[in-house]
């Protein structure tokens, strides 16, 4: 590709928010990999999900790479967000991953208690509203969002929404009243 064609393609990608920088600092990517390993997702499982070599992830996690491609950093970040929606794995490989992480002083993701009352993961709320296991315990804000989604979007009755979410009908009614009382954007 000639320089002019490259520049045009680059400008177009930037304009459509698809531009991924060439190389970026590997620190944040390494931390995400370490947290996933500490949660029980082994290097082999992560490498399979990312379609990368195990040694590549191992090298990044151990800090032996200073820079990674923007594309790989994006893939790792997306995988991290996806895997946090599911319960941590169990079994021998997960135990080995956690032991490895503990030996290196890596810690699993921290679920800050204050977030549970304010932040809403729409994927978790939507899964719960559809009657599926959300992957983890929901916070108060997520339970409220799931109740609103079940009643307003899925058009379930308060009783059916309560049954799908494992809540009482009174709790669903209270969540809906709170949703109506709080102006949009302030919740």
Give an overview of the whole structure.
By secondary structure, the protein is mainly alpha-helical. The protein folds into two domains: 3-104, no CATH class; 115-181, no CATH class. The protein is 61% helix and 3% strand. It contains eleven helices and two strands, in the order H-E-H-H-H-E-H-H-H-H-H-H-H. The protein has helices spanning 3-15, 27-38, 43-50, 54-61, 70-83, 92-104, 115-118, 122-129, 140-153, 158-165, 169-181, and strands spanning 23-25, 67-69. It has a two-stranded antiparallel sheet with strand order 1-2. Helix 2 (27-38) packs across helix 6 (92-104), helix 9 (140-153) packs across helix 11 and helix 10 packs across helix 11. The protein starts with a helix and ends in a 6-residue tail after the last helix.
The strand count comes to 2
- Percent of residues in helices: 55-70%
Number of helices: 11
Shape: flat
How far apart are the termini? 49 Å
Mean pLDDT: 81
Tally of separate domains: 2
Low-confidence stretches: none
Order of strands across the main sheet = 1-2
Biggest sheet: strands, sense, closure? 2 strands, antiparallel
Rg from C-alpha positions?
21 Å
- SSE order in H/E notation? HEHHHEHHHHHHH
User: What class do helices, strands and sheet pairing give?
Assistant: mainly alpha
**Fraction of residues in β-strands:** under 5%
